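Design a sequence for this backbone.
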């Protein structure tokens, strides 16, 4: 039987991925598909934590550009991630996957506060842990949250699941048909080329803590499992120099 190559992972889901084809709100078919993939992977005793974005509900950066106070806009974005986290928790528990939501902003009625040791214990007990409300601080993205939580819980890899693209490209593949796909990169290359897959703070955190990043698309029903089982999908980013190659 094929065994997973990772035992503890952070799955980073953007708000856009949860929105599916609609581009806003929550697509319940997408939510169901993600939940079923997570349940399938759990059969292999993989410990899974999830970081969710909130861009399908609110984008703090966009509001800030239109004159809103940046801190207020970011806090609103954190609350949007809590909505997504609760939706994902409900979808997982509806198919009997034991799940806990931990929020970086305390809200005891709907989620546990984020406590590192408690999160690790939940993972060891086979529960899925969903990290909500980002880092709890404005000016930090949910990509940075994924990097920070991965370092804290000693995850081996961040699986960055994209809704519209399936890898890292040298330019936007949605608007440039000549865009080239990278198979492997280093974090230095990601930062120096300005590839935009994650912000420089998140990339630096991953590089400093030797956390592998895999960027792939959610467009296929078993892609999460395929990546965890070691299949080469999308783009892999490591601390060492990559080959800068493309398909």
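Sequence:
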């Amino acid at each position: 039987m094929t065994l997973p190559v990772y035992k503890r992972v952070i799955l980073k889901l953007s708000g856009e991925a949860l929105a599916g084809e609609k581009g806003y709100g929550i697509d319940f078919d997408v939510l169901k598909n993600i939940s079923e993939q997570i349940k399938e992977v759990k059969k292999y005793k993989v410990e899974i934590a999830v970081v969710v974005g909130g861009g399908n509900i609110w984008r703090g950066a966009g509001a800030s550009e239109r004159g809103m106070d940046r801190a207020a806009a970011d806090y609103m974005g954190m609350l949007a991630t809590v909505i997504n986290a609760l939706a994902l928790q409900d979808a997982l528990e509806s198919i009997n996957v034991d799940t806990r939501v931990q929020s970086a902003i305390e809200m005891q009625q709907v989620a546990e506060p984020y406590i590192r040791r408690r999160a690790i214990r939940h993972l060891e007990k086979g529960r899925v842990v969903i990290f909500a409300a980002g880092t709890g601080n404005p000016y930090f993205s949910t990509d940075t949250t994924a990097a920070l939580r991965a370092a804290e819980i000693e995850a081996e890899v961040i699986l960055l699941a994209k809704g519209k693209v399936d890898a890292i490209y040298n330019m936007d593949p949605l608007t440039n048909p000549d865009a080239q796909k990278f198979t492997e990169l280093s974090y230095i290359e990601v930062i120096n080329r300005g590839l935009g897959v994650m912000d420089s703070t998140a990339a630096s955190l991953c590089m400093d803590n030797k956390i592998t990043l895999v960027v792939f698309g959610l467009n296929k029903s078993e892609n999460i499992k395929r990546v965890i089982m070691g299949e080469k999908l999308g783009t892999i980013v490591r601390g060492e120099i990559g080959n800068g190659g493309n398909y």
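Residues 241-247 have pLDDT under 50 and may be disordered.
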